[in-house]
Amino acid sequence: MNERQSMETDIVCVGFGPAMGGFLTTLAKGIVNEDGSAVMESTVVPGLPPQVICYERADDIGVGVSGVVSKARGIRESLPELDPACIPLCTPITEEKVVYLVDPHGASRRSLPLKAADAALKLLGGKFPGCRYKDMAVELPYIPPFLEKHGGLTFSLGQFNQWVGNTVMATGAAQIWPASPVAAPIIEHRKVVGVRLADQGVDKAGKPDAAYMPGMDVRARLTVVGDGPVGPVGRAIDEARGLPMGHHQRDYAVGMKFVVDLPGNCPWKVGTVIHTIGYPEPEIFGFLYVLPGHVASLGIFVPSWFDNPVRTAYRYLQHWMQHPYLWKYLKGGTIRSFGAKTLQESGKNGEPYLVGDGYARIGEGSGTTNVLTGSGVDEAWTSGVQLGQAVVELLEKGLPFTSENLEKTYVARRRASWVEAEAKIAARSREAFASGFIPGIIGMALTGLTKGALCWPADSEPVHKRIPSIEEYYHGRISCEEITRIRQEATAKGLALHDALMDKVGWPEIEYDGKLLISHQDALLLGGKVQAAPGYADHVTFECPDTCRACAEKTCIEACSGQAITTNPDDGVPLFDREKCVHCGACLWNCSKPSKADPERTNVRFAAGAGGLHSAEN
Predict the structure, then answer these.
(1) Which residues pair with 154 in a beta bridge?
(2) EC annotation (predicted)?
(3) Are 379 and 368 in contact (CB under 8 A)?
(4) Do residues 559 and 311 make contact, with C-beta atoms less than 8 angstroms apart?
(5) Residue 615 pLDDT more than 80?
(6) pLDDT above 90 covers what percent of the chain?
(7) In 3D, which of 156, 218, 226 has the Cα closest to residue 186?
(8) Is the pLDDT of residue 571 over 70?
(9) How far is it, in rounded angstroms, from Cα 206 to Cα 605?
């Protein structure tokens, strides 16, 4: 049996996203001079700067992420010479719109007040002041200040990450290693002393195979955790410590998006930002950002409080693109890339313990996402900058990375910043969506316009208490007998249920054009490349197989962004194909059954895994 190797370094980092980009950019300025010489010495390699290694799960430092719109305050403050033209697919925002989309098919599940509002809009058209009604849509005449991104940037986070990563590595201050999944933190006597990389040369169950190589233990004075909302290191620390009193991580969304070449007749100007509400379901939000080169990043957010047990982002995305307001300018376009990502939408309410002895948390997994303003990249970047400043201060003073020292430097900076101030305002802004779409919109407006003084209170619940059965959700629209028949047919064929159920309630069939309207499987092939390096264990597993066998919804299958989780006709426990997994993590929080060990978790376990979707444009 091979021995597990061990390596010492000064600082080890997990995950390379915008937060880690902000951290390493700031750290580099403090530990090396412009000529690459050391400002201070490493404890493990005397004469050299502190040794910093960052491990990233994905096969490159810019793949599988997202198009974004941001005020970019923190980014510009720490990169004052930033020229958007130097980064592909990056441009200043020139125009913003918020658009309410009316359902053109009558197929979505809308409340009576919303149906009445739609009917009134159709009847009145553009006849009342301030309503610009066309193509079954209303361009809102006013954008609330908390939603505006005026003066900011819209860009490809993948391209931005590559630019930042290359800039950091050119300083010599840090090494960034992609295709290096980190399995877990190393915790000794309640102190994080480093991380363990994932084992290689194992079978699907993680058992040693012919080319077995145990993952290395990388021990460090400080472990920086920035592995996002579904990262195994951050979640392992949360499971060990729990969350602060009153905090929860129950609110999520999956963002699914395309990057497309727009057709030649499209009049949208570079820098145009469009956000939509109301369609394809009231709970689903849409976005479209026009980037340089006649390219657009577009997609939808499907949230955890959308109580549909067969919520499928891909089919809904195709209906959203074909809404008359959008399709007249998208028709004839061509897909360039495809992607999906989980978003942690608990925000301040989901903030974990930010520091402990030997570790610090930054980025989305640390609760930086602002769910009121709909932004997170700049907040994540800024949290990394704050930690970078704190680490440089502690290194200069020769102080250890204890919980107390990190509280006094990093956490103190964060608490005194605009990130914290705005997070407090936003903390209760999304609560009302637990009561429905209309209360949710009113609640957001109340919170935003009163700067957090007022809200529409509602209790957030774990997903297993929210998701109804398929029979309950489609009551009055599809009979129980018909659902049973559809389920039997789908199971026998190894298919998900969503297409048959959506067809049944009136959603039109998707007519593929081979360019922009393509099958889900074709999107995985044409819109990037799904790749799974051999020799790793399955990173999606099911904690209790019997729970899966008894589950009638199997929301993990319905919501899978890559069709990697499929029906098992022979057993009932879903099948997982890591060759199709895009690592969005949606299965982790979409599962409708609680873990027997912890009702705040689900029956799905999401571990470290290499590979995923290759798409540096998303």
Answers:
(1) 69, 91
(2) 1.5.5.1
(3) yes
(4) yes
(5) no
(6) 84
(7) 218
(8) yes
(9) 14
Q: How far apart are CA 565 and CA 585, in angstroms?
A: 12
Instruction: Determine the 3-state secondary structure of 490 from DSSP.
Output: helix
73 sits in which H/E element: helix 73-78
Give me the mean pLDDT over the 160-176 stretch: 95
- Residues near 593 by Cβ (< 8 Å), separated by ≥ 6? 464, 547, 548, 551, 602, 603
pLDDT band for position 63 (50/70/90)? confident
130 pLDDT higher than 60: no
Q: Single out the residue of 350, 305, 277 nearest to residue 590, CA to CA.
A: 305
Q: What is the DSSP string of 396-463?
A: HHT----HHHHIIIIIHHHHTSHHHHHHHHHTTTTGGGGG-HHHHHHHHHHHHHTTTS---------H
pLDDT of residue 34: 85
CA dist., res. 400 & res. 443, Å (int): 44
Residues 301 and 253 sit within 8 Å (Cβ to Cβ): yes
How confident is residue 587, by pLDDT bands cut at 50, 70 and 90?
Answer: very high
* Token pair recorded at residue 325: 């307001």
Residue 524, CA atoms < 13 Å, CB-side half-sphere: 19
Q: What number of CA atoms fall less than 13 Å from residue 615's CA on the CB side?
A: 32
- pLDDT (tens digit per residue) in 485-534: 999 999 888 899 999 999 999 999 999 999 999 999 899 887 667 778 88
**What is the structure's pLDDT at 529?**
72
- Residue 415 makes CB contacts below 8 A (sequence gap 6+) with none
Q: How confident is the model at residue 107 (pLDDT cuts 50, 70, 90)?
A: very high
Average pLDDT over residues 120-130: 71
Rounded to 10 deg, the angle between the 418-426 and 377-397 helix axes is 140
Residue 291, token pair as written in the block: 């980037």
One-character DSSP codes across 3-55 = PPPEEEEEEEEE--SHHHHHHHHHHHHHHB-TTS-BSS--SSSTTSPPPEEEE
Q: What are φ and ψ of residue 558, in 5° steps?
A: -65, -35
> H-helix or E-strand containing 525?
helix 520-526
**Cα 281 to Cα 326: distance, rounded to the nearest angstrom:** 16
Q: Using CA atoms, how far apart are residues 413 and 403, in angstroms rounded to an integer?
A: 14
In the chain, what is the greatest distance between 2 CA atoms, to the nearest angstrom?
78
Q: Which domains, ranges and CATH numbers included, belong to the chain?
A: 6-82+156-247+348-425 (3.50.50.60), 428-460 (no CATH), 465-606 (no CATH)
Give the type of residue at 274: I
